[in-house]
Amino acid sequence: CVVIGLATQYHILLKEKINGVEGTKLDEEFLNMERKTDITHKLILDLVPKTIGYLQPNPAYRAKLNMLSTVSKIRGQVKSVGYPQTEGILGDCMLCYGNELGAESGFGFALLEMGEALKQVAQAKDCMDVRVKRTFIDPLQSLQHKELKEIAYHLRKLEGRRLDFDYKKRRKGKIADSEIKKAFEKFEESKDLAERSMFNLLERDVQRMQHLSGLLEAVMDYHRQSQQILENLRSSLQSRITDASNQPKREFASKSVVSTVCYTDIYGFSTCSSGVILNTEVTEALSEKYAPVVVHPPDKVTIKAQTTDKPTSNNDSGPPLDQPCCQALYSFQPENQGELGFKEGDIIILTSQIDENWCEGMIRGEAGLFPMNYVKVLIPLPQ
Q1: Does the keyword Coiled coil apply (predicted)?
Q2: Which tens digits make up the pLDDT trace of 76-95?
Q3: 316 pLDDT exceeds 50?
Q4: Are the CB atoms for 50 and 320 separated by under 8 Å?
Q5: Is residue 61 part of a domain?
Q6: Which of 23, 67, 124, 253 is most enclosed, with most CB atoms within 10 A?
């Protein structure tokens, strides 16, 4: 049996569309299964990215993670970088300033407690991400790449054999009946394969409902854990508020400048009480000890020697401001691989801008990514 070529199939299909010639019709049940299969395919294409967006809502971070993942694969590194949860970022901020205020401060200790609780919430969210990917996203992607791909292949093959059968049927008399019969048998075989594949797909609705239930259970477990963590935090914080409210209030005691000077022993004076006026002897002693000193300028030879031996300043050691660069407004500690750390006041050479929030730069021979809101651009990158 000789099957017509793709060019002839395309010609026949175009002729059917233009002239309104009807080809061999398929039964309504088959067409209904084909419609539902097509909807399932579109659903997965739309549902998977939106589910990932629900778990990781920041598109800039997602792009950054994809870039870091690509770089890791190129370098042969297996370590994966996790998505920075917003609860974890807020918790790190609270822990940082809580440590600076100190645990002896009521507010500082409360910041430490809440920061640690938010870090636990972020860990629970990471667990939810892993669970949703395993129980919901991965099965849908497997369905898309295997079964739906196979069904699409059978449907394309079916359409080609239908066109071949219709072409030979219309040329009856010029083409042997045996050829037409063989074309019809091939057409029926492809229809049976496509119909069986779509039937098996649509009959497994229970399996996909279980995947949806897995998504629901993962989200509910995350919210239960978060609620439990935050309830414990609320009880502890309310208890600390009550204890702090019951503490006796301290009164502000003003100290005069004279009192401050008297209590300082760097001048060699004895301690005096607040409000004591300095006597004449003390004033004269201060005048003699801190009398202005007359400095005579050195000769030219001395000046030349001092100028020659003067070390270079720290500013001269920095990179010349003749290329794109920026100055750090705050210190930045890298949290992920590929990020560039620096300290407040450092001058960073700009090499490229990843997006409106992240740039790539270099300092002290090290290159990496850093956030734009931590720096002030001195010389911008060329457009």
Answers
A1: yes
A2: 766 666 788 999 999 999 99
A3: no
A4: no
A5: yes
A6: 124
